[in-house]
Amino acid sequence: VPKIDTAKVKAHLQKFQQIADQNGGNRRSGRAGYTASVNYVVEKMKAAGYDVTTQACPSPDCTGGSNVIAEWKGGDANQVIMFGAHLDGVAAGPGINDNGSGSATILEVALALAEKNPAMAKRVRFGWWADEEQGLNGSRYYIKQLGANKSKIKGYLNFDMVASVNGGYFINNINTELGKSFKEYYDKAGIPTEENTEGRNRSDDASFTNAGISASGVAAGASATLTAAQAQKWGKKANAPRDPCYHAACDTIKNIDDTILGHSANAQVTALYKLAVSATSAPEP
Ligand code: PHE
Ligand code: ZN
Ligand code: ZN
Ligand code: ZN
């Protein structure tokens, strides 16, 4: 399993910050800062050898913006493992933790996979969603457009706010096979994890679970506070929001916990190898 360099993830976040700075301070779906974010991801993924599609999500499904879908060659095309993150932010600020962090981590994981180019067991697909902030719209549209092909998706993994400065280590559906593929990474690193109760049905994984697709993911938390016990075990502040800049102008490049960010990326690549890379490269459980 390749090791993800946190500095490379940070470089993508710097780019999202610069895009916001140059486009009215935000990356809201349908606006210039969103289009520039799409172009950045598309260019990186194409250069790495991915098959990349932009899918416009028109009204009434979305308020604007396109999804970006990228598939890696190899593996069983009838068994797809999908990674996803919403690429849009709210109008109030640059949206670096929400959700530059999810967007940048899956991007760097995708680039690391391409560089390593291992033999694949399952097909791996990455999605960057438009218009999540207005109601999980881009991901819902993607599922709608897939029709019967949605049954090929055997697991969906969601990343929304993975580097909250007062955050924790939360996993969606932690006791499922998908959830365990992340938990295993954190267990080995000696980091305690918990079920992601704050995020239930509040991000794009809901679009997939509503369609009958198993889902998991990792998050560090939004506006909810940490309990005393959580603060103690993660070395953070009790009774304070996990992300003090949630949906605010201060969700900038400074609003990132580099340690939590790096662990999220490495948990992702560990899960990707476990779930989709061939047994000749990594043993299947
Ligand atoms: N989906 C929410 C947003 O983008 C963020 C969120 C995720 C909130 C998980 C709570 C839990 O604003
Ligand atoms: Zn948000
Ligand atoms: Zn979000
Ligand atoms: Zn398995």
Describe this structure in words.
By secondary structure, this protein is α/β, with parallel strands linked by helices. It has a single domain (6-273), classed as Aminopeptidase, CATH 3.40.630.10. Helices cover 38% and strands 17% of the residues. It has helices at residues 6-22, 32-47, 96-116, 137-146, 177-189, 205-209, 228-234, 258-276, and strands at residues 51-56, 66-71, 76-86, 122-129, 153-159, 170-172, 194-195, 215-219. An 8-stranded mixed β-sheet has the order 1-2-4-3-5-8-6-7, sandwiched between helices. Helix 1 (6-22) packs across helix 3 (96-116), helix 3 (96-116) crosses helix 8 and helix 5 (177-189) crosses helix 8. The protein is globular. The two termini are 15 Å apart. The model has no long low-confidence stretch (mean pLDDT 97). Bound molecules: phenylalanine (PHE) and zinc ion (3 copies).
Outline of this structure?
The protein is α/β, with parallel strands linked by helices and 285 residues long.
* Global geometry: globular
Distance between the termini: 15 Å
Mean pLDDT figure: 97
CATH class reads Alpha Beta
